Amino acid sequence: MESLLLLAWLSPFIGTLLILLFKSASWKIKSLLGILSILVSALVSSYAAYLFLTEGESIHISYPWVKSLNVSLGAFFDGLSTVMALVVSWLSFLIAVYSYEYMKGEVGETRYWLFFTFFVGSMMLLVLSDNMISMFIGWEGTGLASYALIGHWFTDEEERWVGEPGRRALGVPMWSEPSHSSLRAIVFTRLGDVGMVIGIATLHTLAGTTLLSGLLDAQWATQLLSKGVLPVFLWLLFLGALAKSAQFPFHEWLVTAMTGPTSVSALIHAATMVKAGVYFALRFSPFLVAAYIVLQGGIGSTIIEEFLVGLAVIGAFTAFMMATMAIVSRELKLVLAFSTASQLGYMFLGVAVGTLVGGAVGGLYAGMSHLMSHAVFKAALFLGAGAVIHAVHSRFIDDMGGLAKEMPITATAFVLASLSLAGVPPFLGFWTKDEIIHLSSETGLIVPTFLAVITAWITASYTARMISRVFFGHSHHKAHEVSPVMFTPYLVLGLASIGIGAIWPSISGSFEKMLEHTLGGENSVHMLEGHIPGTFEATIILVLLLFLSVFYIYSIAKKQPYYYISKSPILMKLHSFLFDRWYINALYYRTIVDGFKETSKALYKYLDTLIVDNFYHKAIPKLFQQLVNVTSIYIEHTWDRILHHYLVEGFKGLWRIFKQLQTDKVSSYLLYLWLGLSLILVSMYILGWFP
């Protein structure tokens, strides 16, 4: 019976195959195949969660695959993977239901559902793997699917672009087409994957196994420390996670990933790809604690502390940086994209500071609770954004406004989810974000804590600006509410943001206890202790004040701050700096992309022209031509002498010899005959032809 739990990740892949087999079927059939395959995954995951909670222990199903590498295929349900499987499968199901109506009539329907189900299956395989190899297969599967779905509209019509057409920063275009965006996504994430592959290969070499359970003894850390490469290894291993979850300096790919269908954006941001990096950090954080315990008292434990502090700084900085970009963005999906990278920064901060303060469970609880919270409200926000953009036929918030009257259900769901994003109590986002800020203050780390608090204020500001510009103020379009098939998924998620938030204080303890049953979750240690007072009070008070102030400015007073900003040259420069994404994208193109272009030109000029063209195409053929000419002359002269002189003269000499033998005397002929017969008989005797 337990083998049926494999359907948690197998079912979406089966859906992929069925959609491929029935590619000529109607949209309805292909959609239902995709939706049902994901529903089966969600139901099986729920059943596994029921077994996990009732039996109180992990469920492990494993079938050998590559015995030489100790690689198996199966399903591993512990505290972390069970929660993650529920989040991924049920959110994917709701997004799939939304897609049924949203993608109807669009081109590439077979391709859409094929990669949609493949995406979900890959993410579920990643989550439920018990070894690093199958986890990495799922990891790469999500990358492939995201490439296909981000570039779904590969014909690159302008309405599918992201960014403002015509705008440039440092001469670099600040807009992106679907085909270009999909390429950016796969290049950025593969850069991190290189480090991750090196890290996994190193772990396999040192631990002698690919099983996650084989890493708990942390002997690999002792060996790496003795070789002096422990810090390098840790950063290489987590490089893939940072790239996948769009953390600085890999954040740029997520910004332009908005060129795909909005349902794809919801899937990537809420349920699958970007959460894969955080999940990897969560999965490996208990192993870091185990290594810290083994190395405690020496430089090894200090290295792990410093690594976690570095991870916290990257997360906090990314959260702050992306929030500053969101506050000036004019595109609805871009605001949400910036906020996703910002909230992912909070998650990495939570994993790091939670582990530093509370050991394995501390990191698991802080990171996973905000991951779940963000998944719920961000899916609602993206699906709602898709409905709004579909209704007004524009992606720019300047073209929206007053939609609360025309789309009341969408407005309700969107505002509920937005309040959770802003961290307004008692919404779910408030509790999970506040826990991260609280843990950060307990470490005594001033910079990450300060950035986390400032980011919370900025988040409240851009969220209030977003809902004010979209649903309140002046109306620019006549719109209508979308069908129940589309609004039901995001209405459910919007209500969940307040519903779960209302009961979170009473269930958070049980949630934390569930995570204690994660592989390595029993490891507990306090690495850093400290306290920065007043963070909770400062956060909650200013979040509420800023949210209400910005909402008042845009919705009630109906002021346009940009008008006043445009009057100040300094503020305009700051606005351009934030609007052009801190010029990081432009610098990447000016240095890395243009650098490769110039290198290519130099290689063409010096390598291709001088060496390939001049040497291979000119010098070598000319040399062979000369050799052929010389050789042909020599051979022709030699054969001419052989054929026309030596051979002729030789035949003449033989003719003269034979001519002398002809004497016209019978006695001479008989003598020659006798000598010939004698020679033949002697030869036969020597050869033993006579007895």
UniProtKB/TrEMBL annotation:
Membrane topology: Multi-pass membrane protein
InterPro entries reported in the protein's UniProt record: NADHpl_OxRdtase_5_subgr, ND/Mrp_TM, NU5C-like, Proton_antipo_N
Compartments (UniProt record): Membrane
Keywords: Membrane, Transmembrane, Transmembrane helix
MF terms in GO: NADH dehydrogenase (ubiquinone) activity; NADH dehydrogenase activity
Domain of life where this protein originates: Archaea
Xref: NCBIfam families: NDH_I_L (TIGR01974)
NADH:quinone oxidoreductase/Mrp antiporter transmembrane domain span: 177-459
GO biological process: ATP synthesis coupled electron transport; electron transport coupled proton transport
Name of the protein this chain belongs to: NADH-quinone oxidoreductase subunit L
Transmembrane segments: 6-25, 32-53, 73-100, 112-139, 194-216, 228-247, 278-295, 307-328, 344-365, 371-392, 413-432, 444-464, 538-557, 669-690
Gene Ontology CC annotations of this record: membrane
Principal cellular location given in the protein's record: membrane
Residues annotated as domain NADH-Ubiquinone oxidoreductase (complex I) chain 5 N-terminal: 66-112
